[in-house]
Specification:
Largest sheet: 4 strands, antiparallel
Number of helices: 12
Number of strands: 6
Strand order of the largest sheet: 3-4-5-6
Radius of gyration: 22 Å
Shape: elongated
Strand content: 5-15%
Distance between the termini: 33 Å
Number of domains: 2
Structural class: alpha+beta
Helix content: 55-70%
């Protein structure tokens, strides 16, 4: 379909007839994301409020559908790149996200840590270096004032504000550590996401039925990277009146981490009273 035909279709969005609108909407949606710049131009040059609202809805649907499909492909591919998964979740709210800016920011933090690392350091010493650079030098901290805000779940916001919740800070910490070949992975602990330092360099972050002897210790990025043992997890589970389960002690997959990220957003949007966003998040969850 050439540009003149597309322009003619978009002009028909002014028609008040809902049946005609549904037909036109279906045709425009079939054109995919390439039609978005044309729609944006039409929105800017329109003085018809109904048409502008319809264009906004169509653009959102196209962008949302793109994120949904990309998340499905990411999960089917094994979710190997955690950063790619969390960026896709952020694209739900920020479709024009500058991915290069995010990667550059992370690379800068990683480079600062790399300068302080060497092969003679113990696991605890490596964590101390990570903690110093991430929390002292770059100033990241837990967002205690606005703990349940959706912004805590978007990687771009966390990097810009330097604040996050237990999950988003853990995600950032793990992404940086793994890029430095430091074996730190996420642990899906109820009510509080944490990290595990794994001894075996060939360890895969996949839950097992029995507890692994490969975990040296655990890390809490929400508390400035404090280190603790399995005993503290046992006590925490007792407080929650939960039976110990291997998944509460073992590193989880990247897909599980992104699922939890979406669960957090579902909770946030419910709390804020955004049922449409809750439904869209649930569909993204199904995509995984």
């Amino acid at each position: 379909m050439d540009k003149n035909e597309i322009d003619a279709l978009i002009r028909l969005l002014e028609d008040p007839d809902e049946d005609i609108f549904k037909h036109i909407k279906g045709k425009i949606l079939s054109l995919g994301s390439e039609v978005i710049p044309v729609l944006e131009n039409a929105w800017e040059n329109s003085f018809d409020h109904r048409m502008q609202v319809r264009i906004e809805n169509i653009i959102h649907f196209i962008q949302y559908d793109t994120v949904n499909k990309q998340l499905t492909d990411w999960a089917k591919g094994g979710g190997k790149d955690l950063l790619a998964g969390v960026i896709l979740v952020a694209r739900y709210q920020y479709p024009d996200l500058n991915e290069l800016k995010i990667m550059t920011h992370i690379e800068r933090i990683k480079q600062d840590i790399w300068l302080e690392l060497n092969n003679n350091l113990t696991a605890l010493e490596k964590v101390r270096v990570l903690n110093h650079i991430i929390f002292d030098v770059h100033g990241f901290s837990g967002n205690t004032a606005n703990f349940h805000a959706p912004q805590n779940s978007y990687i771009n916001n966390v990097l810009e504000s330097k604040k996050g919740n237990p999950l988003s800070l853990s995600v950032l910490y793990a992404i940086i550590a793994q890029r430095l070949d430091v074996n730190i992975y996420g642990v899906n602990l109820p009510e509080h996401f944490i990290l595990a330092y794994v001894e075996d360099t060939h360890y895969l972050p996949i839950p097992t039925k029995k507890e692994s002897t490969n975990v040296l210790f655990y890390i809490n990025p929400f508390n400035r990277g404090s280190v603790f043992s399995k005993m503290e997890i046992d006590l925490f589970l007792k407080q929650l009146k939960l039976e110990p389960s291997a998944e509460y002690f073992e590193p989880c997959s990247n897909v599980d981490i992104v699922k939890r990220l979406i669960y957090n957003l579902i909770f946030s949007f419910k709390k804020l009273g955004y049922p449409d966003k809750v439904d869209e998040m649930k569909r993204l969850l199904n995509a995984l």
